[in-house]
Amino acid sequence: MIYLVEDDDSIRKLVVYTLESQGFAAKGFERPSQFWEAMKEELPSLVLLDIMLPEEDGLTILRRLRSVSTTKKLPVIMLTAKNTEYDRVIGLDNGADDFISKPFGMMELVARVRAVLRRSEPSQNACTEYFAGPLYVCPEKHIVIVNDKEVALTFKEFEMLCLLLENKGRVLTRDIIMDKVWGSEFDRENRTVDVHIRSLRSKLGEAGSLIETVRGLGYKIGG
User: Fold this and answer.
1) 48: helix, coil or strand?
2) In which band, very low, low, confident or very high, does the pLDDT at 125 lie, cut at 50, 70 and 90?
3) Are residues 116 and 183 in contact, defined by beta-carbon separation less than 8 angstroms?
């Protein structure tokens, strides 16, 4: 089941119709209150979420979803008329899995939905634990600890850190990081990876120095 929260009646009906024509079960909601009521009855496999909404905006809804264990990892794609790098980074930092700017093509939307659903499939290595100097990471429990103190990361920062640790000693280019964390369809003409690396280093404190910049190539955690 896919839930869509969109107050524009014509867009909502078209998206739901398109998703159903492609074999997905879908429900559309004009107001966030209707969406939250539906969430009590059935959790969807993915949420399409407009930013500009009545009652509460999409980013507030996203933060609420990420603050609860049952929906912390629920895939969310943001739909918005805003198209600046800043807006994208804000949405992604709050845990969005993808970001589609209006107007968008229906087949592009379907492709993005399928890509996010593929990436959200459970990992075979979910029980792996990572140790690097003062850093400890447990993907299954979504825990990051530096010098015995837990560190709070955004959803994408956590995914990026796990990716670097999974490939410890190997240099990952920005394109590889984008593919693995945001998907191949995401716009590459921005500094999203660099912004997230900078934030990640800052939050990790002493352990931030483990993330090395390989000039002209990308990033790695030394092995």
Assistant:
1) strand
2) very low
3) yes
pTM equals 0.59
pLDDT at res. 140? 79
Rounded CA separation 110/95 (Å):
20
**Average pLDDT, integer, range 54-72:** 88
Residue 41: phi and psi, rounded to 5, are -90, -40
Q: 97 with 119: CB under 8 angstroms? A: yes
DSSP string, 87-155: HHHHHHHTT-SEEEESS--HHHHHHHHHHHHHHTSPPTTTT--EEETTEEEETTTTEEEETTEE----H
Q: How far is CA 52 from CA 35, 81, 117, in A?
A: 15, 9, 24
Tokens at residue 195, please?
A: 């912004």
Q: How confident is the model at residue 188 (pLDDT cuts 50, 70, 90)?
A: low
Q: Which residues contact 176 (CB under 8 A, 6 or more apart)?
A: 218
Strand partners, 4: 28, 48
Average pLDDT score over residue span 17-25: 93
